[in-house]
Amino acid sequence: MSKIISVFIGFLNRINKIIWKFIIFLSKFIKVDDVVINNKPTNERYKQFKVDESPLIEPFIKIEHKDYKKLIKENNIQPIKRRGKSKIPDNVKCPCCDAPKDYLYDNTGKQTQFECKVCRHIFSNNPHKQKDVLLKCPHCEHQLTLRKQRADYDVYVCKNNKCRYYLNNLATLTLSNKKKFEENPTLFKLHYIYRKFHISLPAITKDYRDFIKQPVDLSKIHSSDYVLGLCLTYHVNYGLSYRQTASILKDIHEVYISYKTVENYCKSVSPTIQALLEFYPYELSDTIAADETYIKILGKTAYIFFYFDAIKKIVTSYRVFDKRDSLSSIKAAYSTLSKYDKLPDSLKVISDGNPIYNVAVQYWCQNGLPFKLHQVIGLTNLDETSKEYRSQKQIIERFNRTLKYYYKPKGGFSSLDNANNYMVLFATYNNFLRPNKALNYKTPVELEKLENISNMPNKWIELIRLACKFAAPYSE
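Given the sequence above, the corresponding structure tokens read:
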């Protein structure tokens, strides 16, 4: 079998050489100016996501309650004779007159919308469609219609084709875009859209600091504090794997511990030192760069959402998620926003064109933590925003490459918990221990207690001791 594979690979290599010779031959007859390269880095799917202003919210005026028994007697209304297979649940009643299921029509056949035969009231049994308030378009005061239901929010849209917001957007389309709009209207956002979130705010504020676990109690380890510091130094500072760290401890320091012990030590430090990482009183600037990058967990792709102070070079969000969705973006943004005592009015976040950042902005603006988002789209400066903020976006891209340099020897992680444990250590190393060239080779956060410590293992131990003082909020 191996011989067949080797012969097949050799055959493909010969074909590849022939193709390249043919390309070189053709290039002699083609002028470079005649070659048209369609190199457009922008993605039109990104541009359709736009956060509109809040809708008009009015209380829903319910129809005056009626007595279904009286109406049945006065109008001689008979129960519905059903011929299909639709069976309405016993607990469904008309909210207007309390008529039971025998007097209710199943309008859709899917038990999503009902009509009362007694009072002719139409209602839904879906909790997302039950109306406590009316949502209206702020431009034409037309009632919004539920378009679709996502995992984290419901999308409402104004379907009024005479709405001035829709007409103004339609008038701004070029002739080519109008043709595209006629062929595929979903490529353009012209109608007013509102997203109503049903994400629990208390769950997010608690989740951001309780997503990793401590497998071993550090007070019960058999090795000395200095050995623990050596494990962290080799594994985090120099990017060595657990096996390489155990090997170098044996070969150079004559410390005989298994790679699994090294792994347990490093993973146990993460929950403790995360308190320092989250609750240290940072002096952050008003310019934050955000980006997501991927790593591998058991061969599958997972995503890290980085939020990074573009001026102070401080990592403010570092969590790994198994999905790149709106909820992950909302949680990552909160990890940064929570580090401000008071959000500056000039706070701005620079990201790429991924729409999930817009969702995070809208959610936190609705929950009292507003900030401005500037999206740098594509690889060239095609708009004013890209020209102004591309340098900040490139800073977070370089930081992603730094992570990949340290991450590459590990070849992936065995679980989401292990990945998050490592990211806590890496973010701590970046913020408190790693000199940065842009800061004249100073660390982003300079601690007085580390100035007189000459070696890195003891600096790690001092950080762990300092982190214990910041661990009080975990017990609240």
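The first strand starts at residue 56 and ends at 59. Try to locate this feature in the token string yourself.
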